[in-house]
Design goal:
It is a single chain. The protein contains eight helices and 19 strands. It is of the alpha+beta class. Strand 8 and strand 9 form a beta hairpin. Helix 3 (63-80) packs across helix 5 (101-108) and helix 6 runs parallel beside helix 7. The chain is globular.
Length: 350
């Protein structure tokens, strides 16, 4: 599978370029993306959280230098997602595994990204490790109109004590003149095993469904994009039974949800690997109004996994895996243990 897996980014670029080459004068195209930034912590100890157990805080020295390289590497990836097709960086980017707003400010102020004038939306969540989700957006293209965060309330099945995890971030705003709602997720991990931890992700899916239902109650034709590191694959119950996601566009009803990542998963592709098994935990879902064929407003065009060659481990035990930032021996000068995912949205020009 590895040789096939490596080709998806190049193939996606070729297909998109050929399909849009005759249309780029008639359509505007933007990238909407999600990226798990793998333990993006700063070098300051937060006494309220367990950030001292983060990989960067466990380093004996050179923390400042490592942090600077980590920021530069994250900025490099972001600057390339979708660029070959849109000639622009993502207009909207959801992120996870960030410690605070400060690390996002450092990314957006990096020399590779500062000219794009990214805005930041971030709330501190109660996660015990101190990691949050966030949203970056190009201010000249996307204008937030409302922001909120929804807590996921979990309890330990044995002790009954609260389990603190990441909130779900909801941002509504105008993509130029189109009202779009973005939900950024980082669902509970599979620590302790998939089966044992499954109830936590089912609860996260129910919260996500509640948010989507609430938006659709206000407007059944709401354009909603739910993205994140879900720690579940597209075929798990959290998607198929709770969110009732569909693999095929034609099967999506008025308030239904389309998961374009499910076909990629069926084709053997993934965004993260463990013990020689690929998972597609990083996904972007869209609601029915983004699938309509009338391109007078923004519609879903294509989904992909950004797995450019520089993001792939070249040698060793983990050859072919995502080139992560931290390993058993410390900082690797890599990127993340997850590949970013993205969708393109297009709109007919006047």
């Amino acid at each position: 599978m590895k040789s096939n897996f490596k080709s998806i980014y190049l193939l996606t670029c070729i297909v998109c370029s050929s399909l849009l080459s005759a249309q780029d004068k008639a359509f505007t195209i933007h990238t909407v993306a999600f990226y798990n930034l793998e333990n993006l912590f700063d070098i300051e100890n937060n006494p309220i959280t367990f950030d001292e157990s983060s990989p960067i805080m466990e380093l004996a020295d050179n923390r400042a230098e490592v942090y600077a390289m980590k920021i530069k590497n994250m900025s490099k990836v972001i600057s390339k997602i979708g660029f070959e097709t849109t000639h622009n960086v993502p207009v909207i980017l959801g992120v996870s595994e960030v410690e605070n707003k400060n690390v996002l400010e450092d990314i957006t102020n990096d020399s590779l990204l500062v000219k794009y004038n990214y805005g930041i939306i971030h709330f501190d969540s109660p996660d015990r490790r101190g990691i949050d989700v966030g949203l970056l957006y190009q201010k000249k293209i996307f204008t937030p109109t409302a922001t909120s965060n929804y807590a996921l309330h979990l309890k330990d099945e044995i002790t009954g004590k609260p389990i603190y995890t990441r909130d779900q971030l909801v941002v509504s705003g105008l993509l130029e003149t189109d009202l779009i709602h973005i939900i950024v997720n980082h669902w509970p991990s599979r620590r302790g095993g998939e089966t044992k931890s499954n109830t936590k992700r089912i609860a996260a899916a129910k919260l996500n469904k509640h948010i989507i239902d609430s938006l659709q109650t206000i407007n059944p034709y709401a354009k909603i994009i739910s993205m994140g590191d879900f720690n579940d694959d597209p075929t798990n119950d959290s998607f198929k039974k709770v969110l009732n996601t569909k693999k095929k566009k034609r099967k999506v009803g008025l308030k239904g949800i389309y998961n374009p990542m499910e076909q990629l998963y069926s084709d053997g592709f993934g965004t993260t690997a463990y013990r020689d098994k690929w998972s597609l935990f990083d996904q972007i879902l869209v609601t029915k109004p983004l699938l309509e064929s009338d391109f007078s407003s923004y519609r879903f065009y294509k989904a992909g996994i950004f797995n450019a060659r520089f993001l792939i481990t070249k040698t060793g035990t983990y050859k072919g895996y995502p080139f992560r930032s931290f390993g058993y021996e410390g900082f690797t000068n890599g990127y993340s243990d997850h590949f970013p995912v993205y969708i393109y949205v297009i709109k007919a020009k006047d």
